[in-house]
Every structure is written in structure tokens, then in C-alpha cells.
Automatic annotation (TrEMBL):
<dbReference type="GO" id="GO:0047617">
    <property type="term" value="F:fatty acyl-CoA hydrolase activity"/>
</dbReference>
<comment type="similarity">
    <text>Belongs to the thioesterase PaaI family.</text>
</comment>
<feature type="domain" description="Thioesterase">
    <location>
        <begin position="49"/>
        <end position="125"/>
    </location>
</feature>
<dbReference type="InterPro" id="IPR006683">
    <property type="entry name" value="Thioestr_dom"/>
</dbReference>
<protein>
    <submittedName>
        <fullName>PaaI family thioesterase</fullName>
    </submittedName>
</protein>
<keyword id="KW-0378">Hydrolase</keyword>
<dbReference type="InterPro" id="IPR039298">
    <property type="entry name" value="ACOT13"/>
</dbReference>
<dbReference type="InterPro" id="IPR003736">
    <property type="entry name" value="PAAI_dom"/>
</dbReference>
<dbReference type="Pfam" id="PF03061">
    <property type="entry name" value="4HBT"/>
</dbReference>
<dbReference type="InterPro" id="IPR029069">
    <property type="entry name" value="HotDog_dom_sf"/>
</dbReference>
Length: 141
């Protein structure tokens, strides 16, 4: 399936439609088999002990998977998460941004299933793995 939205178009879409996440989260690259997103870690993402909070990791996965799906279907703002599962595997490296590498596993007319592996920037060991299912609204006739 062809790419309908590249990284620049996805970042512009986030800035317009989801400015609440566009400040710290950006799409780095889009390829037919993988999307890479970045969460720029700031104090607002940290929990006591100086590690990145689970909700911040989950938010990166959700934005990355959403954008991976939009890269294939176009700017459908009303595509929504209907199921999510996340496994936290290890503590993120201190003082490093997080990267999400996403793959679409199934893209149908009404449902999309994808997964994201989250890494501390510069590390090959995964911090978390997330799988999500999105509902895609019907196209207007």
C-alpha cells in the first residue's frame, strides 16, 4: 500500500489537529514497512526517581501508531483507538529521548492493527512494546 502522508505532512497534521502533542512528539521517518516517532523528553514526562512515566511512553506509542495508520489512509482525524496493550520491559535511559518504531500488522476498511517498539534514543534494547487496534470511520460517499 502506498504512503499517502510523509513525515512532513504528518507533523503538519499534528500541529494543526493535535497541538497538545505536537510540541514534544514528532514523526522522524515514514517508510512502507515502518514509521519512526520521537518523544522529546522534558521534566513533564518524568516521574519520581527520574524515569520516564508510563503515561508518557503510552502517549508516544499511541501517537506513533495513529500516524502510521494515517500515513496509509490519509488525514482521517476521527480514527480512534479501540484497544491497547502495553508491556513495560525496562527502565528508559536517563536523559534520553524516546523513539517508537511502528509497524502496521493489518489495515482493513474499518480496523487497523499495529505495534510499536519503544527505545531510548541510542539504545537497541526495547523499553516497551505496545499493540493497538484502531477503528477507521467509513468514508463519506
Amino acid at each position: 500500500m502506498e504512503i499517502l502522508m510523509d513525515a512532513d505532512r504528518l507533523n503538519a497534521f499534528l500541529a494543526t489537529d493535535f497541538p497538545q502533542v505536537a510540541d514534544g512528539c514528532s514523526i522522524r521517518s515514514v517508510a512502507p514497512d515502518k514509521l519512526v516517532a520521537l518523544l522529546q523528553i522534558g521534566d513533564q514526562h518524568l516521574r519520581p526517581g527520574g524515569t520516564v512515566s508510563g503515561p508518557s511512553i503510552f502517549a508516544l506509542a499511541d501517537v506513533a501508531i495513529y500516524c502510521a495508520i494515517l500515513s496509509r489512509i490519509g488525514p482521517v482525524a476521527l480514527a480512534v483507538t479501540i484497544n491497547a496493550s502495553i508491556d513495560f520491559m525496562r527502565k528508559p535511559a536517563a536523559g534520553r529521548n524516546l523513539l517508537a518504531e511502528c509497524r502496521i500488522l493489518k489495515l482493513g476498511r474499518s480496523l487497523a492493527v499495529a505495534e510499536a517498539m519503544i527505545f531510548s534514543e541510542g539504545s537497541a534494547e526495547g523499553v516497551a512494546r505496545c499493540s493497538m487496534t484502531y477503528s477507521i470511520p467509513p468514508k463519506r460517499q
